[in-house]
Design a protein that fits this description.
The protein is α+β, with helices and mostly antiparallel strands. The protein is 48% helix and 22% strand. It folds into two domains: 39-205, Beta-Lactamase (2-Layer Sandwich), CATH 3.30.450; 230-389, Beta-Lactamase (2-Layer Sandwich). The strands form two sheets. It has a six-stranded antiparallel β-sheet with strand order 3-2-1-6-5-4, sandwiched between helices. A six-stranded antiparallel β-sheet has the order 9-8-7-12-11-10, with helices on both faces.
Length: 390
């Protein structure tokens, strides 16, 4: 219903059934004309908006970082005729990146920076892509997703998900205060833009992965050169740690060595809280490093580390790390130690790429460490022989 046709007369009983039929026909024709005009005006706006979005899309595709792509998207949406918001997906919530209102430079309320809803729930709601929600009607869409557009006076909201590797990466919200402004046709250019953002993010991720792999290869090459030149373990460990720090970041780092004859583990190099130290030999036990030495398999735990460590049969001593990664040092199938990284403060600090790099590093340095150990043992015996002869 668009409205009402109001015809009045000062004469009593001025309208009979025939007059009413004529007025009904006239009202229907007027309604059709109004709809045609609205459709024509809407088409003109959509064409203009489509042209603007097409021009602006180049700004997004030229970005080199994921956040840069989202910031470029926010600039594009600031000129849109809709209330707009962009959220990024956190671990268990959505975090507000930008919010704009074409009718008000200053918002009449302070929006929440976080929506307490799991990204997986949002993904399930938007698995098929664009969703248009009529806020004046009951809806199955969670209130947490519609609170901000409601607060801003929207009658209709469009939800546009941006996925990366089939996981929700970001969410675009578009709201309109007038019904009929947000339609499937009107949102199609924005849906296309969301798909283009996904493609851009994939391109950025692939480029970053390539850069990272090149950096890792350079680091391993430099470590190989360093180890070839370094005759002593005391100079080898700091060089190894520095390369790991440059590639992966500043985490607690340890090189542990296993002596099968005495069944003990020692830690000749331990970096923690900005300090370098060593740990005297202790018996092979039931800690995470002992599990690696027994199994010869790498191990990564990045959340709920205490419970998961206990489930593996490890006994925890002291404050457990929030993220833990270890890779065995092996020679001819024999485990001689492990490289360990820890983050004592943050979960999910490591991923499969970190594990892959540390495994490659362990494989590369195992021989050098073993050779350096043999050289040190030979020197020690050479010093001991004259003493024994005396």
């Amino acid at each position: 219903m668009l409205g009402a046709l109001d015809v009045q007369s000062t004469q009593p009983e001025a309208f009979d059934q025939g007059s009413i039929a004529v007025l009904e026909t006239l009202a229907s024709q007027i309604a059709t004309a109004i709809q045609n005009v609205n459709l024509f005006e809407s088409s003109k706006v959509n064409l203009g908006e489509l042209e603007r979005l097409y021009r602006s899309s180049r700004q997004i595709t030229q970005e080199q970082t994921e956040m840069g792509a989202l910031e470029a998207t926010a600039r594009v949406l600031q000129d849109a005729p809709f209330i707009s918001a962009i959220f990024t997906a956190g671990d268990n919530n959505l975090e507000l990146v930008s919010l704009s209102d074409p009718d008000n430079e200053r918002l009449s309320f302070t929006p929440s920076k976080v929506i307490n809803i799991s990204p997986s729930v949002v993904s399930e709601q938007l698995v098929s892509g664009l969703r248009i929600v009529d806020l004046s009607m009951p809806t199955a869409t969670p209130n947490s997703l519609t609170n901000i557009p409601r607060q801003m006076g929207s009658q209709t909201v469009a939800l546009l998900p941006i996925f990366q590797d089939e996981t929700l990466y970001a969410l675009i919200m578009l709201g309109a205060r007038q019904k009929g402004q947000i339609t499937a046709a009107a949102m199609q250019p924005y849906a296309s833009m969301a798909e283009m953002i996904t493609t851009t993010l994939d391109k950025i991720k692939a480029a970053n992965a390539t850069k990272r792999q090149l950096s890792e290869m350079e680091a391993i090459s430099m470590i190989s050169q360093t180890m070839s030149a370094a005759g002593e373990l005391s100079s080898l460990y700091p060089a190894l740690h520095e390369q790991v720090r440059q590639i992966l970041g500043d985490y607690s780092f340890a090189v542990t060595l296993y002596d099968s004859a005495s069944d003990t583990i020692r830690v000749p190099y331990l970096y923690e809280d900005g300090e370098v130290s060593s740990v005297e030999p202790f018996p092979l036990g039931e800690g995470l490093v002992s599990i690696i030495i027994r199994t010869g398999q790498p191990l990564m735990i990045v959340e709920d580390t205490e419970r998961r460590s206990i489930a593996l049969g490890a006994k925890m001593v002291g404050r457990p790390a929030k993220s833990w990664l270890g890779s065995p040092l092996q020679i001819g199938g024999k485990v001689i130690g492990a490289i360990v990284l820890q983050d004592l403060e943050n979960e999910k600090s490591f991923d499969e790429e970190h594990l892959r790099f540390v495994n490659a590093l362990s494989s590369q340095v195992s021989g050098a460490i073993h050779n350096a150990q043999l050289l040190e043992d030979s020197r020690r015996r050479a010093i001991q022989l004259p003493s024994a002869a005396e």
